[in-house]
Write a structure and sequence with these properties.
With 165 residues, the protein is α+β, with helices and mostly antiparallel strands. The protein has a 6-stranded antiparallel β-barrel. Strand 5 and strand 6 form a beta hairpin. It starts with a helix and ends with a strand.
Length: 165
């Protein structure tokens, strides 16, 4: 075994502990890059171009559960009938993404923006059991890459139905 590689891994692990960052969470540079990419995607959605890698995107607006600040996140959505949308909390590494915690922490303050449309207040409903499984099968059939990501993850991705308030 390459001891240099092992030594580097141990040094990175120690640095992460010193940074106060949990394993499986992004570092400062990754967060900065994600923030830039999100801002660009949000601008595209607001201009009416809401697709990325073959998936439909919307802007999800939540309120920080601890900070109380408004947060905007581009999220892939899947059709769930006439007046509802499904979103998957698939980012965030080994834990649910921050937007999921914010959405569940302040469900009464959530809204979405579909491409080129005004904001619409929504109510989130986390699906479970057979209802989640049925929705997950439709999503996985529409976007097999999401099912691939799920298979690599140690956590089950939450499926959330957003309905207008």
């Amino acid at each position: 075994m390459d001891t240099t590689r092992t030594d580097r891994r141990q040094a990175v692990t120690q640095q992460r502990k010193a940074d106060g960052r949990r394993p499986g969470t992004p570092g400062a540079f990754s967060r900065w890059m994600q923030h830039r990419a999100n801002a660009r995607a949000i601008r595209r959605i607001r201009r009416g171009r809401g697709t990325f890698m073959g998936m439909n995107l919307l802007v999800l607006t939540t309120v920080g559960r601890r900070s109380g600040e408004r947060r905007e996140t581009p999220v892939a959505w899947f059709d769930d009938g006439e007046d509802s949308w499904l979103v998957i909390a698939s980012g965030g590494g080994s834990q649910h993404p921050d937007w999921h915690a914010n959405l569940m922490g302040h469900p009464d303050q959530a809204s979405i923006e579909l491409p080129g449309r005004a904001a619409l207040p929504v109510t989130p409903h986390r699906l479970s059991g057979a209802e989640r499984e049925e929705a997950w099968q439709r999503i996985a059939a529409a976007q097999p890459r999401i099912a691939k990501y799920q298979n690599k993850s140690s956590r089950q991705y939450p499926v959330i139905r957003l309905t207008p308030r």
